[in-house]
Every structure is written in C-alpha cells, then in structure tokens.
C-alpha cells in the first residue's frame, strides 16, 4: 500500500508507519486491492488527510467504515462522490443541518468542501471489500486511527470532536476534554435517528459557536 499522505501529517505519523502492525496492515491492504474489488480507490485511502491538512484541523467527525457499494466511498467519512445517491445517514445529516442552520438541502453529497475548511472526516477503518461491510476491521486500521485522534488531542487545542453513535463515543477516552470540545449524540442512521437520538442535536450550530469562542472561523456547512 502506498501511503500517499499530505506532508503536514508525516512528521507526526512517520513513527506509526514504521511499526510492525502498520507494515502488516499495508501488506494486507495491498493484497486485498490486488486480488479483489475494494473501496475507496487506492489513491483515495488517505483522502481525509489530504483534504484536511494537520495545521488546519478544527473539527473531527468520526465514522466507522467506508461505504461498500460501487462509486460511493472516496476517503471521507459519510461523504459520497458527486452524482451518487445520498445514503440514509447522509440524508439525515443534511436534514439536521437544514433544521439547525436553515441551509437548504444540497444536491451533492460530496463533503470535500467541509474537509477543505478544516473538518477531518475520519473513518476508524479506511478500507473495505466491495459489498462486505466491516470486512477490513480488526486488521490494524483502528490502531492507526486511534493514534491519529490521540495525537491530535495531545498536540493541538480547541478542536471540536463530533462523536455520533456508540462506536464513535468510545473514542472519547482518547481526547483531553480540558483542551478540546466533545459533542456526542446518536448516530444519523435511520435506526438511531428515527428513535429520537439524532435530530435536534444542533451539532452544527454548536460547533460554530465553539469555534467562535476559540476565535476560529466557522464552518460553512
């Protein structure tokens, strides 16, 4: 696997790339991409880091797994390529933004525009086998992305972490709450949202309020 990651991250993650678990992970991922169909495309695995450079990180949104159907995943959690039908969780994210901030529901589900403003859209697992959800879990990705979260917590201040759903909430233990803001809610998936655990969380207006308190520019959601 070619670790094509923006230079701003390399000084902080280079030691991670040299560890045995990451070398094993790289071999596994390279083998999977050679032998079967996987997502996102190999040159987009580290897209979250390439759109959102280390010095620019203001917000972190945590997902679990890339989308596993054709044409959807492009390396940013919850995001899909232009022209792709919006998955249910993304629909509910846009609905919440609409009710929270009055921003009209967008045509494109591509969240690159958020990433380019300093929103790190990080999945815990960065790759998946086509049509097999969770197929690359427990291969080393989680160890790597946990380290990313911890490193961000340790080396920066005033990041807003958005932890949606039980899996993401477990990552709170990696974050120093005296230096950063942690907002939690149910997951935007229909199962959680329809039971009242997502809508009305106002995480998007709250995030911009917290960024303003830290004298940082708001995100144009």
Automatic annotation (TrEMBL):
Gene3D superfamilies on file: Uracil-DNA glycosylase-like domain
KW Hydrolase (keyword) present: yes
EC numbers on record: 3.2.2.27
Broad class of the protein's primary localization: cytoplasm
UniProt KW Transmembrane helix keyword: no
CDD domains: UDG-F1-like (cd10027)
Broadest EC class assigned to this enzyme: hydrolase
Top-level taxon: Bacteria
PROSITE patterns referenced in this protein's UniProt entry, alphabetically: U_DNA_GLYCOSYLASE (PS00130)
Name this protein carries in UniProt: Uracil-DNA glycosylase
Lineage: Bacteria, Pseudomonadati, Bacteroidota, Flavobacteriia, Flavobacteriales
Gene: ung
């Amino acid at each position: 696997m070619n670790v094509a990651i923006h230079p701003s991250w390399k000084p902080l993650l280079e030691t991670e790339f040299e560890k045995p678990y990451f070398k094993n992970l790289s071999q596994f991922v390279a083998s999977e991409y050679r032998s079967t169909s996987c997502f996102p495309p190999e040159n987009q695995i580290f897209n979250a880091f390439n759109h959102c450079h280390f010095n620019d990180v203001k917000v972190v949104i945590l997902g679990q797994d890339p989308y596993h159907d054709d044409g959807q995943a492009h390396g940013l959690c919850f995001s899909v390529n232009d022209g792709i039908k919006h998955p249910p969780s993304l629909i509910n994210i846009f609905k919440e933004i609409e009710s929270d901030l009055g921003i009209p529901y967008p045509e494109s589900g591509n969240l690159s525009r958020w990433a380019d403003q300093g929103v790190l859209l990080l999945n815990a697992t960065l790759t998946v086998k086509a049509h097999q959800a969770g197929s690359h879990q427990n291969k080393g990705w989680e160890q790597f992305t946990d380290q990313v979260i911890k490193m961000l917590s340790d080396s920066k201040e005033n990041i807003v972490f958005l932890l949606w759903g039980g899996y993401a909430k477990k990552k709170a233990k990696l974050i120093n709450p005296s230096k950063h803001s942690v907002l939690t809610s149910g997951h935007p998936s229909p199962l959680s949202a329809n039971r009242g655990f997502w809508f009305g969380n106002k995480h998007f207006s709250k995030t911009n309020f917290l960024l303003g308190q830290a004298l940082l520019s708001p995100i144009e959601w």
